[in-house]
Amino acid sequence: MNKRFKITRLDEQQNPTITLQQCKEYFATLPDFTYEDAFISKNKEGVTMTIKGDFFMWQIQDVSFPFRFFDGEIYVAVSHPIIMKKVQEIASDLQAEFIEG
Question: pLDDT tens-digit profile of 25-47?
Fold first, then answer.
């Protein structure tokens, strides 16, 4: 089962402070990430689901992992230790923390 984590940075009033522009600039410096304005998933039966939003897709070989920006935070499902390592790196680079939730 995947655990969901969020990368967040809060101000004194506990409001998230990571901006979409900051994410676009940061992820543009990482060669294995691309920005998408929707996440498209297709199951084994061929049913396609599209979720609109701001996604930074991490490409490892032929598999993509979505990091979703939403309301000042970045969300990701962690299904493998390598994803958790990437979450930690991104949080550190953004001077943020990562928490389950």
Answer: 999 999 999 999 999 988 889 89
CB 66 within 8 A of CB 57: yes
Q: Parallel, antiparallel, or unpaired: how do β-strands 73-78 and 3-8 relate? A: antiparallel
Report which of 76, 50, 54, 52 is spatially closest to residue 65, judged by C-alpha positions: 76
CA nearest neighbour of 81 among 101, 57, 65, 96: 65
CA nearest to 60, candidates 39, 30, 88, 99: 30
Alpha-carbon distance values, 34 to 46, 49, 99 (Å):
24, 19, 23
